[in-house]
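Re-running the complex after MR caught last week's input typo. The corrected sequence lines follow. Everything else is unchanged.
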Amino acid sequence: MLSRRVLLGSMAAGAVLSPADQLIGKPRMGGRIRVAGIVASTADTLDPAKGGNSSDYMRLFLLYSGLTQFDGALRAQPGLAEAIETDDNIVWTIRLRRGVQFHNGKSLTADDVVYSLMRHKDPAVGSKVKAVAEQFAGARRVGPLEVELRLNGPNPDIPIILAQAQFVIVENGRRDFSVANGTGPFILKAFAPGIRTIVRRNPNYWKPGKPYLDEIELIAIPDELSRVNALLSGDVQMVIAVSPGSVKRVKASSSHMIMETKSGLYTDLVMRQDHPVTGNPDFVLGMKHLLDRDLIKRALFRGYATIANDQPISPLDPYFNPEIPQRAFDPEKARFYLKRSGLLGTRLPVYVSPAATLSVDMGSILQEHAAQIGLKLAVNRVPSDGYWSTHWMRHPLTFGNINQRPTTDLMFSLFFQSKATENEAGWKNPKFDKMLIEARQTGDVALRKAIYGEMQWMIHRTGGVGIPVFISLLDGYDRRIRGLQPVPLGGLMGYTFGEHVWLDA
Amino acid sequence: MSGVSPVSPWRGPAKLVAKRTGLALVTLALVSAVIFTISGLLPGDAAQELLGQGATPEQIAALRQEMGLDRPALVRYFEWLASIVAGDPGQSLVANKPVAEIISERLPNTLILAGLTTLFSVPIAFLVGIWSAITRGRAADRALNVMTLAMVALPEFLVATIAVLIFSVKLLWLPSITIVPQDLTLWEFLRAYAMPVLVLGVGVIAQLGRMIRAAIIAELDRPYVEMARLKGVSQSRLIFRHVLPNAVGPIVNAMALSLSYLFGGAIIVETIFSYPGLASLMVNAVTSRDMPLLQACAMIFCAAYLLLVLIADTVAILANPRLRQG
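Corrected-run output:
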């Protein structure tokens, strides 16, 4: 048995300035900025459980705080929880920060945390993270500022899971989410779903001295060109998701900058393993050798990408296995494998869509290379609307688009475990499934790293997905905005920019 | 027109207008069936869209039942029709709010944009049309012709993009997105709307200007114009007293078409300027498969179109003595 481990110490708390912080100077108070996201619809929400897109996450992180927060290396840092401790990765003790207040003046207590965590299991709430919350066997109040969270099975990643936007803390018993009462850096001033969210500074925020801005207005401009134009014309001061093609325009402006956030996001070629053609192991290997990763990185992403190796764990992940040799673009090898599969000369449709980032262009490049070795691919371009429900994973060859999840365990269990509904390729490997459980149960970090490393090998060798590159996230901002730093889980500091940025005069 | 006495000379037109109104209502009923059928043909439904990529079949089935999507289409159609007729378009499946409330937030925006564009472009269209007609075949007419043709041919997204690049990004004169905050000063209000109105106006002015020109020229060739000219009627009196009243039928029809376009077809302008109007709301409803909202929007657009055409017909009937006889 392991000794009791303290996963989060209170030592790391507080505003410790990193060298980068010191370089950009002392934060200035005041000012108002307008920020443009990508999505706005009537489904915009103030209910953390219902948050489902980048705009929702930004809104939630402005208004609420989580028990933990991500840092730039994807580790969990203390948030409302001062410390989280466990002996066995099953029973977790969460100690809360003292003196935290909700926007309506009520003090944060253990009851709020119990309610906030357990409401995700209630089917009537309709939580987006219900599946994740199913592992919570129960939560109970131990003291006014202490909660015990008991899991159904061991999971060492709880501090990281609790940092996600949906797990931010709401007040005990809260059902009405037409208003937002959180403990976050900003207080809701106006909210019109599909149009705008305006928040003002929370003077009682639990991080001393923060936030810096007086007011933030969050809008959405779905059209990328319009979004970049709005930034350049000064109508907004920050935009999320600039396309690689627009970077030059933004950089050409003397008053605007681009922040690149390397991430684990990828667009992948999905080869269904339950289909006689695409399920052939030689076919899969052949196709993986046909991916021209360098060209995709250079031409499609203008260099704003990291070469990937047909497995989903990016070099940013602490469990990334660097020992797997890089698979390169090799038409000769591809021809060899495809010939051995006996499938050269067959005609195969591949489905691409603007819904899966740049899959249309990737499909065309693939088609070109395939034609040169005698494999006929017919590229079927289908509209974004309805792509995920009607095409993705439903034909032998499609493209997927997977956002990085905060833990290795989540990446594997959501997309590669045999029974997972989003196991894109329908790849079944009982040994892989067993190792996934094993890794969850061990308290030994080195052993877990070894298991995860082997699992990456398995996907790299036989998995039904070809992952050419990990895509960098690009955000544009006004040069006067300071304090931005990449957090790999999403644009604009993993959607948490609000409390970190200030406006220089 | 219903309160007119039976002996009135308006009896003929009243009957005609009543007939047109009846026809419009029948059309609307047919359209409702088409809207319902077509929206049902879209792949996926609100339950799938709401639960996202990772939903299990059981979750989807449960939500479908909760939303009532598992009942037969015919039952759902008549229930929906009954509530629409009663003036309640139902509850949004996605936003958890009454559809009426969502639409009432957006409708004023659409009306303001359409209204401003009309105010801006109709007078200009008349100027262009009339000037072009009276200088027919001469240099001014040809120049206007080339201009209006070019304006009709230019796609809206191109005009909008170029306008944004010039006026917002390069010159920094006008905002590139149209944000409608409360309590704007008149100057701010005009600045905010300048770009979308300009872009929408380009198409409307060109279309309407050409129609007005054609309508006036058709009248100018008529014998009574020659007669009036011979009697020494001045040019302006000829146009405004004699020609325009006779050309009013085709002109109001063209106006009705342009205005109904402003109402529902402003989607490109709404997208580029991020303007929260009805058209983008409807596109939103399509992508989230929010059928009650989608159907309500479609019905509103259709009703507005029919209403405008009906008004145009009525004006044409009243302006034309021959039609007036019924």
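None of the earlier attempt is carried over here. The mean pLDDT of chain A is 91. The first strand of chain A starts at residue 5 and ends at 6.
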